[in-house]
Specification:
Length: 258
């Protein structure tokens, strides 16, 4: 007979798989395109030049998904060994308890942010530089007019699609969510309660990293400042929600047979 742990793992697996499939569909589907918003030739906020991305998606995933996952797993095993002087299936179950909520939270917020980007279609600061619309903004009739009837002449459609997905900033959201979650995670750990100064230093460092990543998106002309602020706000909300949701989610750290 299945025990409660197996039921839970199966349920978690189904939820995680569904979220992952939905995220892949949203990211790869050619039919899901952002809302095609018009523009004003006098809008200087979308006339910035495109810059090479300094923070690539691989960099984002590595630093704010893979690295925190390994950190949580290693910390849980060290703490379990310190108290029990052994590593057994209960240690793995503790790792699972901590990691599954963090990863699920990151994937969920990523998916929601992608859907918001598609629905809003806010133009990035470098939109005109990438789109190259078939509209001459120097003509008097095009000045001070909101233009909706235009075509982007850039042949690279993926670049144009990306230029329409500025709000909210996913980089700001993911980096803030990951660092906020780890800060909350360290706050509750018994071992860290004895080394308060080191804990505060790590938390301050994490905060600085998230701010750096977020501000860098503005200096790279990748997002407007409003996109970054909203992304950081959503990231903090998700971090607190998933962290405190975990307290009720973790009904028992030790697997028990029925």
């Amino acid at each position: 007979m299945f025990n409660t742990v197996r039921y839970r793992v199966i349920g978690d697996g189904i939820c995680s798989l569904c979220s992952l499939v939905m995220l892949v569909v949203v990211l790869t589907s050619s039919t899901l395109k952002p809302f095609e918003r018009g523009f004003d030739c006098e809008d200087i906020s979308i006339k910035h030049p495109e810059k090479p991305p300094s923070l690539t998606p691989i960099w984002l995933i590595g630093w704010f998904l893979v690295l925190p996952t390994f950190f949580i797993a290693i910390y849980e095993m060290i703490e379990y060994f310190a108290y029990n002087h052994t590593l057994d299936k209960n240690a793995l179950y503790r790792v699972y308890n901590e990691v599954v909520v963090f990863v699920f939270g990151i994937c969920s917020s990523f998916l929601i942010a992608e859907i918001i980007q598609l629905r809003c279609g806010r133009l990035r600061p470098y939109f005109l530089d990438v789109c190259k619309p078939n509209v001459d903004c120097d003509l008097p009739e095009n000045r001070y007019r909101y233009i909706t009837n235009y075509v982007c002449t850039n042949a690279v459609e993926s670049d144009v699609v990306m230029a329409r997905k500025s709000f909210p900033s996913i980089h700001a959201l993911i980096s803030t969510q990951a660092t906020s979650y780890i800060s909350l995670y360290l706050q509750m750990k018994d071992i860290m309660k004895t080394i308060v100064l080191m804990k505060r230093f790590i938390q301050s460092l994490l905060f600085g990293v998230s701010v750096y990543v977020s501000v860098r998106r503005i200096s790279d002309n990748a997002n407007h400042w409003g996109d970054v602020l909203v992304g950081m706000f959503i990231g903090i909300l998700f971090a607190f929600y998933m962290f405190y949701f975990m307290n009720s989610y973790r009904t028992n750290e030790t697997p028990k047979e029925e």
